[in-house]
Amino acid sequence: MRRFTLLCCTAAFVACARTDQPADTTAAVATPPPEPPPIMLSDVAGKWDVKGMAEGTDSTVVTYVFNASADTTGWTITFPNRRPIPVRVVSVAGDSITIAAGPFESVLRKGVQVRTTGPMRLRDGKLVGTVTARYATKRPDSVSILRTEGTRAP
């Protein structure tokens, strides 16, 4: 009789057990967007018309022509009515090229020398970046940050 009771209990347990499939946890995990491909110097080679905007605004405070080559030589910035200023490629990593220029006379602060540095990236066919300008002055406002956006020159 015990066996019969045990058999009945086991049958009842099996019959009452849930038959639902476990939840598919892989569908709930969002796949991150693919990383952008690494940038190469040849990606930005050419002539770019660039505008610089004060941080937090869309007001253009400076314009220049940026020339880049497929290697680290011959890079320049040319402000209107000025001679070209050599640009150094500091690093190429991931989606960014970091450049530096100067010292040269500031366009925004007449008679003051400035050094600039910052990363740039290709976004939607535009060359975008952030430039940090360090002015040779002892005043508290010796650093300025500009947002840049360049389009390929025709």
Question: How would you portray this structure in words?
Answer:
The radius of gyration is 30 Å and the shape is globular. It starts with a helix and ends with a strand. With 154 residues, the protein is mostly beta strands. The chain has 3 helices and 8 strands, in the order H-H-H-E-E-E-E-E-E-E-E.
Search tags:
8 strands, 3 helices, 8-stranded antiparallel beta barrel, 154 residues, mainly beta
| Helical percentage | 10-25%
Could you say which overall geometry the principal axes of the C-alpha atoms support?
A: globular
Q: Main β-sheet: number of strands, strand sense, barrel status? A: 8 strands, antiparallel, barrel
**Strand tally:** 8
Give the rounded overall mean pLDDT: 87
Structural class: mainly beta
- Our measurement of the CA-to-CA distance between the termini, rounded to an integer number of angstroms, reads 96 Å
Strand order of the largest sheet: 1-2-3-4-5-6-7-8
Helix-strand pattern: HHHEEEEEEEE
What is the count of DSSP helices, taking H or I runs of 4+ residues? Answer: 3
* Range of strand content: over 45%
Could you name the ranges where pLDDT drops below 50 across 5 or more consecutive residues?
none
